[in-house]
What does this fold into?
Amino acid sequence: MACTAVLLVFSGWGKQSGAHFNPAVTLTFLRLKKIRPWDAVFYVLAQFMGGLLGVLIASVLVGMAIAHPTVHYAVTAPNAGWKIAFLAEVIISFFLFLTVLIVSNTKNLARYAGFFSSALVATYITFEAPFSGMSMNPARSFASALPARAFDDLWIYFLAPPLGMLLAAELYVRLRSANAVYCAKYHHHNEKRCIFNCRFAELQSH
It folds into this structure.
């Protein structure tokens, strides 16, 4: 999953879109005023559609194996109870987005934001997944829950990741200010047009 994230961030499509693929990320950048509301709506719709499309394609490729109880459409579930799972999702989402903000808004580190976030994904899958299933992404959890008809705990993955990321954004803004957020792109060192409320050139001129 970490390698896939790196490939997506540094792909042509990722360079074009900013490589969010997570509604919690997009909504937090909306709060930071780095993405326009109408663009955010379409980003979130695309993220949910992409997640569902991924599950459908996987179903075609692997057949009923994806529905086997040991796989169960890769549903994210609170293995340690909903309270611990909710807290765990808030914490991992908080540190992921705080890392993205720090790295992507530091001149000498900005080009490596995709690697930093992917390293955290690999770490979370290894150590945090037993607690909450490691989602951080409402669209990813919904895409698995829909075909599995597993909606009981879906609210955790709709509320906890945005909450964690919004808290990270609030902390970053209070410590450095809103002006220290230059763009919503994960990888800005490319020739692709930026559609965000972008001031990345200012960061590079410092």
